[in-house]
């Protein structure tokens, strides 16, 4: 009877460069977690006085912190949701045009233009919204109120300046468009070529091939891109503060002069003159926004993690 002895495992000698690189990556990742924890601790510590503040410390008719932040949360979520309604279908259409319809030269140029939109500062979008978009849309808002004023979303009186929540939503949609388009485009390009060719070979039209092969494959990426865009829309400050005529109200009306403001815009507009517990109240609203955006990005990362690897059939 013979016995076989297992050969000893061969391990590569660790080089100094590998050790240094490994240490740097651990330090960098730990630093990110430390910064995030420090921000969270700062927000929680500075927010405590706001939760027990008296009604006289709040602006408007608010009697406590939750009645104060409620309209701000509504305005933040409402404007971001409207922006996503405009941006997501347009971003998917642009991504599909770039990847499956446009000639190569046009697709490259259009892709560069879309990517450059992400580099435009938010203050520029705010100037465009208040100086160009709002005056141009005001006559259409008047028509919407005249034709569909019976519907609560378009109820009057219409704004005379065009600085409404609907204008803000359009500006935010343009701002988040590059994020959603870029992610959707990269995901659509990863669609297995064999799947597309098989659909076409079975007699499917171009649109049927996209509907049966491309869109199902790219759905997780589109959803994650939309969630990342939503995080950007929730935290946008300057464009909203410049365009919107704010009020601490809860209203679904889209074209009126009084509109619910957002948390970020409220902080930007009121922080310079805030003092004592007023600063803590604004920081507490920032904590609420921090929790909302952290939740949105966590959901996005979870969706991305469900599809970690794409097929190599290309």
Automatic annotation (TrEMBL):
All copies of the ABC transmembrane type-1 domain together span: 73-300
- Topology relative to the membrane: Multi-pass membrane protein
Residue ranges annotated as transmembrane are 20-45, 65-98, 110-141, 161-183, 237-257, 277-300
Q: Is the Magnesium keyword given for this protein? A: no
Pfam families tied to this protein: BPD_transp_1
Q: Which GO terms describe its molecular function?
A: phosphate transmembrane transporter activity
PROSITE patterns assigned: ABC_TM1
> What is the protein's major site of localization?
membrane
Q: Does the keyword Translocase apply?
A: no
Q: Which UniProt keywords apply?
A: Cell membrane, Membrane, Phosphate transport, Transmembrane, Transmembrane helix, Transport
For biological process, the GO terms are: phosphate ion transport
Signal sequence region: none
* Intracellular or extracellular location(s): Cell membrane
A GO cellular component annotated for this chain's UniProt record is: plasma membrane
User: Record's family?
Assistant: Belongs to the binding-protein-dependent transport system permease family. CysTW subfamily.
Q: What does this protein do?
A: Part of the binding-protein-dependent transport system for phosphate; probably responsible for the translocation of the substrate across the membrane.
Q: NCBIfam families in the record, alphabetically?
A: phosphate_pstC
* Name the UniProt record assigns to this protein: Phosphate transport system permease protein
Q: Which organism is it from?
A: Orlajensenia leifsoniae
